[in-house]
Fold 6-phosphogluconolactonase.
Amino acid sequence: MSIPEVLLHRDQDVLAEAAAARLVTRIADAQAARGTASVVLTGGGVGTAVLAALARTGARDAVDWGRLDVWWGDERFLPSGDPERNETGAREALLDHVPVDPARVHPMPASDGPDGDDPEAAAARYADELLFAARPGEAPRSSFAVPSFDVLMLGVGPDAHVASLFPGMPALEERHRAAVAVRNSPKPPPTRITLTFPVLQAAREVWVLSAGESKAEAVRLGLSEADPVKAPVAWARGRERTLFLLDGAAASRLPAGAPSAS
Ligand SMILES: O=C(O)[C@H](O)[C@@H](O)[C@H](O)[C@H](O)COP(=O)(O)O
């Protein structure tokens, strides 16, 4: 796994704009190199702000949206279109404003979808969709085949959770399923679906996006040798690169020597 790199930004707005610009470049580079690209979106305030910033920038036209696969790292298990769903936020912020190929946008199943209100079945369906999308020869070495995501974005909770992988919960230890259901989530709503760590760590690049003082301790743990069961963000690492894209407040507990906010 790659050593995390810290990039600091003056505030959340600059962080969102800079991350959006970085995402455009990363997708365009992947498409130039391999004719396609694959990203994993995150819910949360910063993750959605990055998508909105991307929708606003003229540079968005450097992306061939028809050759981009869009996945989610986690989802609230609610009816389709529910404003609390990460998919709803992503469509409103970006996906409804760019010419994506609907067949290449892969939302996690909703609670009124084919599996009804069975989150375990819905998670298994998403794991199958990931398996089907894995390109032989490209899929990274892992205990199961998943697409080789170019960028996987994660927000961080004050408790150091990423996606819907919360401290001390069973989903953290999952090694054999690509996606699992989460019940009794400490962050509402209580029922969710999440990718598991083997999938997160199969991504070429993992970007941890965090802003605000409330995340400073979680960020510090994420950049230390913390126990991932207590601080799941400590396991947020990409195969090739791991970026912590932070504002000054979220970085305020990092040891001296961290780069100064840009
Ligand atoms: O579905 C979710 O709730 C998110 O995926 C979750 O992992 C989020 O990214 C963090 O909780 C940070 O959220 P904020 O950026 O809003 O603090």
About this structure: Residues 42-47, 74, 76, 86, 155-157, 161-164, 187 surround 6-phosphogluconic acid (CB under 6 Å).
